[in-house]
Amino acid sequence: MFSLSNKQLEELIAAIEQAIEWHQCWYKRLLRSLIANVPACEEDLDDNAHALCEFGLWFNKLPSSSKNLHPYFAEIEIAHQKMHHGAKVLLSLNEANSKIPVNLLDQFHEDLDRVRYLFEAVNEDFSKLLHNRDPLTGANNRTHLLSNLREEHELAKRKSLSCALIMIDLDHFKRVNDQYGHSVGDKVLVALVKCINSHLRKYDHLYRYGGEEFLVCLPQTDLKGAQSFAERLRVGVEELEIDIGKDKQIKITGSFGVSSIRADDDIETAIEAADKAMYQAKESGRNQVCVT
């Protein structure tokens, strides 16, 4: 999920919301057939009804990688097929003027409720993820920064693991905004986050701390490892060539401050230490890594 851009998240949320609406309409149509004897749609009587409904058509077009974005997607695929199969059985019995057993009707409604639950759970997870994202860069915002870092701190203490922070601040970012405009400044921030994300492991966390300042949390990483990681990031940022339009590119650098989250310290102290190291990097000439 964390590899998704904000736009991709918005598109997935819209698709899931549409799926909920589709199936509400489909269920009403089903009831009309079962209760009022309105002829069933041919697609609902098809063995592949789950693939012919509007959600099924959309879902089957998703690449395999997208279907792995949420653990419930696999369950949705199975539950959705089971629900449509149950509906087909009910409609077939009704078409044959046969009595519908109560257990089959109850099973269908259980399957329907399961599909609805899965849709809503996925939608809630994606919505929470989007809510916690910076709308410009896609980095995590500060909404749950302290609570998330405290969880990492507690995990590190329980398992005697190391954990480190890197505070990153772009050098002369105001000059970029003043010279090229804020739209170019936005492009620079997006490029920076893309560069940082390309270096992160799946369990690392990136936050937009404020303005052009970003915070990276590196679980299971000691101070020396974090320093090496920050140096690789520094080089990666320095090598960026950011296209700002009209065949023009600009280059940027950043100052990096590294600290460890010690067992006997609180998170605020660790963040302050990383921030202090970052300012030390700036005062020492910028475009470098300092450790505290």
Low-confidence stretches: none
Rounded to the nearest angstrom, the distance between the terminal CA atoms is 33 Å
Query: Can you tell me the overall shape?
Result: elongated
- Arithmetic mean pLDDT: 93
Strand content: 5-15%
Q: CATH homologous superfamily name of the largest domain?
A: Reverse transcriptase/Diguanylate cyclase domain
Order of strands, main sheet, comes to 2-3-1-6-7
Question: Mind telling me the C-alpha Rg?
Answer: 26 Å
CATH architecture of the largest domain, by name, is 2-Layer Sandwich
Overall domain count: 2
Q: How many strand units?
A: 7
Class from secondary-structure proportions? alpha+beta
CATH class wording of the largest domain: Alpha Beta
- State the assembly state of the protein chains: single chain
| CATH fold category name of the largest domain | Alpha-Beta Plaits
Q: How is the main sheet built? A: 5 strands, mixed
H-E order: HHHHHHHEHHEEHEEEHE
Question: Count of helical segments?
Answer: 11
Could you give the topology of this structure?
Elements: H1 6-36, H2 49-52, H3 54-61, H4 64-67, H5 72-95, H6 102-131, H7 145-158, E1 163-170, H8 173-180, H9 182-199, E2 205-210, E3 213-219, H10 223-238, E4 242-245, E5 248-250, E6 254-260, H11 267-283, E7 289-291
Parallel strand pairs: 6-7
Antiparallel strand pairs: 1-3, 1-6, 2-3, 4-5
Helix pairs in contact: 1-6, 5-6, 8-9, 9-10
